[in-house]
Amino acid sequence: MIEDIKKACQVMSEGGVILYPTDTIWGIGCDATNEEAVRRVYEIKQRSDSKAMLVLVDSPVKVDFYVQDVPEVAWDLIELADKPLTIIYSGARNLAPNLLAEDGSVGIRVTSEVFSKRLCQQFRKAIVSTSANVSGQPSPGNFGEISEEIKSAVDYIVGYRQEETVRPKPSGIIKLGKGGVIRIIRE
Questions:
Q1: DSSP type of residue 20
Q2: How far is residue 90's CA from residue 65's CA, in Å, rounded to a whole number?
Q3: Which of 25, 45, 150, 158 sits 20 to 30 Å CA-CA off 138?
Q4: Could you give the percent of the chain with pLDDT greater than 70?
């Protein structure tokens, strides 16, 4: 696992794209602050960059760095979540502009899964996490379901957890609006 993390960080710091296990499904990832790397992820997914992608961080403290004004309720939601939870925040900052939604918002998930958390800690920046599939095709439930097209398009494939056959669920998604308004997008 340590070698995987070192190599993945090296590839991302050079602007590369990785395929890696997350706290939910396998993801395509890159440095979330690198506009060119983010553009490559959209290309790999064959998706227009008007559809925003989420990012992973390893601790709630990092959310503050990427969001101008974190609503108070967000801290409770992060602390109380009993399964992976992506929160969409307004006023994103310090991220590649082509990563954000048209309204300037971004989805951020604090990961507690061993590999993705250590990867975020080592990399010291937010990491893009988007399902490892071509846009419009079903999300792969495990590594074995990822298409050759995706595997051959990335710069590095993490070896850790490739043999697992469990089908993790995608995260819940909540959008936080003005005045603490909460909208559930996916349970």
A1: E
A2: 13
A3: 158
A4: 99
